[in-house]
Amino acid sequence: MTTPPINVLFLCTHNSARSILAEATLSHVGQGRFKGFSAGSSPRENQQPHPLGLQALREAGIATEGLRSKAWDEFALPEAPHMDLVITVCDSAAGEQCPFWPGHPATAHWGYADPSAVEGSDAQRLDAFRRTLIAIRYRLDLLVALPAGQIDRLVLQQKARELAAS
To answer: Do the Cβ atoms of 143 and 156 come closer than 8 Å?
Structure first.
């Protein structure tokens, strides 16, 4: 019998940059043990993942197929996948009133600067997405390295919160 993956939901305001980077990266490095999801507290109408974020992911060899911006309400529905861990990746989403998450998942906050707010040339803006992706990947590599037998809700929450300081 196989163990179901640990589902991690990454939240940001618009679900176009940081949370999308985290979703795709965790699904890539999770080795089947972890599955990434993402959502936003208030994605704009017709919001799409940021093109520079998608480019940074593709350059890193991470699949971008199926990535889309979505509201976090989608994950509070009864038919939504069960989340084991919910991580906010922007400070504004961390301060917002989140919906009720079925199953009371572990929570943590990993703040990252918004790469889509960087001004400058296309190369400078792409570099901001690359740097954010590297920072996210660092923490996710540490998360997926946790021993499988030692992951329960409280340990997951403690470790995710400790990783916020790294």
So the answer is: no
One-letter amino acid for residue 158 of the chain: Q
Q: What is the pTM of this model?
A: 0.89
Buried b (16+ CB within 10 A) or exposed e, 90-108: beebbeeeeeebeeebbbb
Q: How far apart are CA 21 and CA 136, in angstroms?
A: 8
Residue tagged 């009371």 (tokens)? 104
For residue 153, what is the enclosing H or E element?
Answer: helix 153-163
Any idea what DSSP says for residue 36? E
Please write the tens of the pLDDT for every residue from 146-166. 887 667 766 777 887 888 887
Specify the CATH number of the domain 6-158: 3.40.50.2300
Write down the domain spans for the chain: 6-158
pLDDT digits (tens, 9 = 90+) for 37-58: 999 988 888 889 999 999 999 9
What CA–CA distance (Å, rounded) separates 72 from 60?
Answer: 27
Query: How far apart, in Å, do the first and last CA atoms of the chain sit?
Result: 35
The set of residues, in sequence order, having a beta carbon less than 8 Å from that of 24 and lying 6+ positions away, is 36, 57, 62, 63, 64, 67
